[in-house]
Write a structure and sequence with these properties.
The complex is a heterotrimer of chains A (356), B (280) and C (438). With 356 residues, chain A is an alpha+beta fold. Chain A is 28% helix and 22% strand. In chain A, a hairpin with a 2-residue loop joins strand 8 and strand 9. Chain A is globular and about 65 Å long. The C terminus of chain A is likely disordered. The mean pLDDT of chain B is 94.
């Protein structure tokens, strides 16, 4: 079928042309890993990057941001709620990174919308790369399972532009009007290429990914199954080796729990900070005075999985997970979310209530 | 109050009143006179000690009696409440709200206008979010049925709103039981745990609704006692508290199961949250 | 040098000697620069190195700590302890990129008004010539080309355990459980992406036990000892892990009879501990070797200019998200409330940014002085690949430089060689570390 093709060279030139007006975030190679980072020139882009070690959420929902600033000046008290407005391009996002934004939108943009997230979200155009198996950095990546949560390696739904690599060229799919506008300076040419769908799995790039995946695809148990296992002893056993290190929540594209606290700067300015927090930390749920409704690691681990696969689906209609696999490879004690999903699907036995 | 739900409205502390040992009442007047606070009993707000942080507190007076001020009862227990307790009248604070759901006052009136029997159990500072309910009932006395109040605290110094007990107990069709876990030299009133007094009084569950608020441990045992007395979970209403950072359902941590205390609560019927109550 | 640069100096002065000396300087009309802001403390021993790091983090260009002359402390020993702490802290600060001249510890008595003025004058001029203190995290990144060099396995000569030998582990574990000698055997099993800890309490679980392929890349199971709630455990340990257990015993966290140590044998047990340190050894007797700190990258970094070290650590601190994996993986971090999360007083803000990261890592490394046994769990747990072991090994190296095997004046201290060795910050020798530090 006829698709628009852009060469790597032209893509690079076009991206470079965006740099004065946009903050461009792209995969780069740092030390021994690929990470999303703000680039100063397209020479930094790691075109063969695999899944980035960090998710893209920090560019929409930073690890630390000032949500209110109070300053006493000659004109009295000034209050600011700084909003980021500089246009951004997130380049090289995988379909799961795009899906992550849709997952977060359902909560953070729901009334009353989070204005800080909204400003960054509105200002960003997402240019994604399909996951394909025939080139370095294509995928599937260790631990990933996007189909289990309704995604896919060529899922274009939550991207403004989808690029599918063919050697050193890319098939370019302008999904949204925002994407089309961003691409207006790019030179493309039509070419006849196999369609990028699972139906043509034998020949196409993405099909290679799908062939390499474990079969059958891990099935997500419905919320009722998660609900039925709320009291299972399984959570206590799982949490035995959990260090409570919070890596899983920080590396997750969709974990969004945050903390808010003020700090006073030496010049008297007061900032209200909003920072990433984690359900795995002991203090996350503890209230002043000492009461802690989730005092054990088992209770906190349970909260993580229930939030992802029971509470969020019931409230927002989708799992709080995009199957990216980062938590799978990063957990220092190899608590594997896929194994948790499989255990619930197999009916983890409810032997005793998780101790308080 | 404004477009940005994270931005507090500035207010001055118009009045600070000692309620009990370590508990003060703060009445906040908005700096911007155009700001109005409309809320129903049970809703809460966030009070900011600017420079330290903010925390959620129940709105502790009915809107009709508030004089347009935001009123919060604050127990000194952590960094934010420490900072608030150090403040003086006239100091600047931040207020966000109202948030959460409210007590189902219409349901308390009963379907046929006969008025359900209302049993209110408040422990310690838990009496503060119940106060607007009591006030609203008293201010519309004829619309509600008989009222039985249980006010308790660990000791007499920790009883809040004592100066209003006379008004409450003098109201028509109202019975009041005040008890402390442990008395002192000058205490001549009842001594006993709220659950013990509840067991002695043994109100009938027929056409009744019980409303409770207090420390988690108190709620836990009150729920048990009400169950023993024959109250169905649908007849029991409580306000829950938790660590909160936004009050908007966004910070992810105030949930009891799939219910957010800041959005679906803080007022819950027991049957709504029973399944997922953790470490209570 | 910046024109008109007025350095901001914070001074911690002990009430009895140095503060009185400062007073005397004032009443004697001796002039000293107004750049110094003085914080009065009861004793120099009260000055937690945390105060110094916080002052630097928040923008102090120089920090001065003054106490009574050693031997004259109003509280007898306070300044001896201060002297030890700051000997280590000073080296650590230099290692993370602060010019050594920015922090000075010295002694001024109540009658030495002139000396006080002179010290402050000298210090202020020294700091002035250095220029403003760096903003942590500001120097971004030219990260070292060889990421592999950052891996802990490349770090320590003399103790690089080879592959472990599972040997008789499953049978041994089954026997210990069956005989009721322990409630649980903590070892490893094959996981989905890497080996993972296994809490084996049944025969079926015991059958899955293995030892790590690469012990230097694994975690330290001793970290779970704090969470066993009275259960008796057997631990599969490499030498650094067993040394960690010794330190925990010395610190009163457990008794030797509460834990059964199953040591790796042969190359897997290469290190300073003999077979007698363990209750059981898997395979051949462990290979005895010195575990003193001789890390090539550490040597190299010590020879770098301080600005290069500053840039290196800025790049690393910029990667950190303060997930606390390092702290949670460490058996020595068992404080109920970590200084980093304390709210009252709040030593840190919750902000996830380089200055806060630096503060946390420097203080954690300092808190490891004399305690860290080099198990590398922290570095192995770090999701960002930050070479945290460099900080701990630097501190260990300095501790070994100043203190002997018995914890007193000497050289060669190593943590955890036995459960009886004094912890360096609990003891002192009166005539050690002479000369002050600046």
């Amino acid at each position: 079928m006829n698709q628009e093709i852009i060469s790597r060279q032209e893509l690079s030139r076009w991206l470079e042309s965006l740099l004065p007006g946009y903050t461009v975030i792209a995969p780069v190679h740092r030390e021994d890993r690929d990470v999303f980072a703000v680039i100063g020139s397209t020479g930094e882009v790691a075109w063969d990057a695999g899944r980035t070690a960090n998710p893209a959420k920090e560019f929409f929902f930073p690890a630390s941001e000032t949500i209110v600033r109070w300053r006493t000046g000659p004109a009295g008290l000034q209050v600011e709620a700084p909003l980021a407005t500089r246009p951004q391009v997130l380049f090289g996002a995988r379909p799961c990174d795009g899906m992550a934004l849709d997952v977060l939108d359902r909560l953070l943009l729901a009334d009353p919308a989070d204005p800080y997230y909204k400003a960054r979200r509105d200002a960003t155009t997402v240019v994604g790369w399909a996951c394909g198996g025939e080139h370095p950095g294509g995928g599937p990546f260790e631990g990933c399972f996007c189909e289990t949560v309704g995604g896919g390696p060529a899922d274009r739904r939550f991207l403004d532009v989808l690029l599918t690599r063919h050697g050193d060229d890319y098939a370019i799919d302008a999904v949204t009007e925002k994407g089309r506008q961003l691409l207006s300076g790019a030179k493309t040419e039509p070419r006849d290429l196999p369609a990028v769908t699972p139906a043509h799995a034998a020949d196409d790039i993405v099909g290679a990914v799908l062939r390499d995946r474990p079969q059958p695809v891990l099935q997500m148990p419905p919320p009722t199954e998660w609900r039925a296992q709320f009291d299972a002893a399984f959570w206590t056993e799982l949490a035995q080796r959990c260090l409570g290190c919070r890596t899983c929540t920080y590396d997750c594209p969709v974990c969004y729990c945050f903390d808010v606290r003020d700090r006073a700067l030496p010049d008297g300015t007061i900032e209200r900070l909003r920072c990433w927090d984690s359900c795995q930390g002991m203090q996350c749920f503890a209230i002043a005075g000492g009461h802690n409704p989730r005092p054990t690691q088992a209770a906190r681990q349970r909260q993580r999985y229930m939030h992802k696969f029971l509470y969020y689906p019931e409230r927002e209609g989708v799992a709080l997970c995009v199957g990216c696999g980062r938590c799978v490879v990063d957990c220092p004690v190899n608590i594997d979310i896929r194994e948790v999903i499989a255990a619930i699907a197999a009916g983890a036995t409810a032997a005793e209530r998780v101790p308080a | 109050m404004n477009d940005n739900p994270f931005l507090p409205a500035l207010a001055r502390l118009a009045e600070i009143r000692d309620l009990a040992t370590g508990i003060k009442l703060f009445r906040c007047e908005f700096v911007d006179k155009e700001t109005e606070l409309h809320y129903r009993p049970g809703q809460f707000g966030f009070l900011s000690a600017i420079g330290v942080g903010e925390a959620p507190f129940g709105l502790a007076v009915s809107e009709a009696r508030s004089g347009g001020l935001a009123e919060f009862a604050v127990q000194r227990i952590g960094t934010v409440t420490d900072a608030l307790h150090e403040m003086q009248p006239g100091d600047l604070v931040g207020v966000r709200g109202p948030m959460g759901n409210c007590f189902p006052m219409d349901q308390l009136k009963g379907d046929d206008g006969s008025g359900r029997r209302i049993i209110i159990l408040g422990g310690g500072i838990g009496l503060a979010p119940l106060r607007p309910v009591i006030q609203e009932i008293l201010d519309h006395r004829d619309e509600y049925g008989p009222l039985e109040l249980f006010c308790a605290a660990r000791s007499p110094e920790l009883l809040v709103f004592r100066e209003e007990f006379a008004e409450w107990s003098a109201a028509p069709r109202t019975t009041m039981h005040v008890t402390v876990d442990k008395g002192n030299e000058s205490w001549t009133g009842q001594v006993g745990l709220i659950t013990q007094v509840l067991a002695q009084v043994a109100p009938s569950p027929e056409n009744a609704v019980a409303i409770t608020c207090g420390p988690p441990i108190m709620i836990k045992f009150v729920l048990k006692e009400l169950d023993r007395l024959g109250f169905a979970p649908e007849q029991v209403i409580m306000t829950l508290e938790s660590k909160m950072k936004c009050g908007l359902g966004k910070c992810g941590r105030c949930n009891v199961g799939d219910q957010y205390i800041c959005q679906d609560g803080p007022v819950f019927r027991y049957d709504q949250v029973r399944e997922f109550l953790e470490a209570f | 040098m910046i024109e008109n640069f007025e350095p901001r100096i914070v001074g911690f002065l002990c009430n009895w000697c140095s503060y009185a000396g400062a007073d005397l300087a004032g009443t004697s009309r001796l002039s000293y620069p107004p750049n110094i802001r003085i914080v009065r403390v009861p004793c120099s021993g009260r000055v937690d190195p945390l105060f110094v790091m916080r002052a630097l983090r928040d923008g102090a260009d120089g920090v001065l700590v003054l106490g009574c002359h050693p031997g004259d402390c109003h509280y007898s020993d306070g300044n001896y302890h201060a002297r030890r702490r700051f000997a280590i802290m000073h080296e650590l600060l230099s290692f993370v990129g602060y010019e050594p001249e920015r922090v000075r510890v010295d002694w001024v008595s109540a009658s030495e008004g002139a000396r006080f003025a002179r010290v402050v004058n000298e210090f202020t001029e020294a700091v002035r010539s250095l220029g403003p203190v760096r903003r942590l995290g500001a120097q971004s990144a030219t990260a070292p080309a060889q990421a592999a060099a950052l891996r802990p396995a490349a770090a320590r000569a003399g103790e690089t355990p080879g592959p472990g030998q599972t040997g008789q582990l499953p049978e041994l574990a089954a026997k210990l459980l069956a005989e009721g000698q322990v409630d649980v055997v903590l070892g490893w099993e094959k996981g989905s992406v890497r080996e993972r800890p296994l809490f084996a309490s049944t025969a079926e679980q015991a059958a899955r036990l293995i030892v790590p392929e690469d012990p230097s890349a694994s975690l330290n199971l001793a970290t779970y000892l704090h969470h066993l709630h009275g259960k008796k455990a057997a631990l599969v340990v490499k030498p650094a892990d067993a040394r960690a257990v010794n330190v925990l015993i010395k610190e009163g966290q457990l008794k030797r009879e509460d834990v059964v140590l199953i040591g790796l044998g042969g190359e897997g047990g290469r290190g300073p501990l003999p077979a007698s340190a363990y209750d059981f050894v898997l395979g051949e007797p462990p290979v005895l070797s010195d575990a003193s700190v001789t890390a090539p990258l550490l040597d190299e970094m010590e020879s770098w200019p301080v600005a290069q070290r500053a840039a290196f650590w800025d790049a690393q601190f910029n990667k950190c998200e303060r997930c606390y994996a390092c702290r949670q993986a460490c058996p020595m971090c068992y404080c109920a409330e970590c200084l980093s999360e304390q709210l009252n007083p709040a030593w840190q803000s919750i902000a996830i940014e380089a200055p806060e990261q630096a503060f946390f890592h420097v203080m954690r490394a300092f808190h490891m002085a004399g305690r860290c046994t080099g198990c590398n769990a922290c570095s192995n747990a770090c999701p960002e690949g930050i070479p945290l072991y460099l900080l701990n090994q630097k501190v260990a190296r300095e501790v070994a430089r100043f203190f002997g095997p018995d914890g007193l004046k000497g050289t060669g201290y190593q943590a955890g060689l036995s459960a009886d060795v004094a912890l360096p910050f609990t003891v002192f020798t009166k005539d050690e570390l002479a000369g002050g530090h600046s």
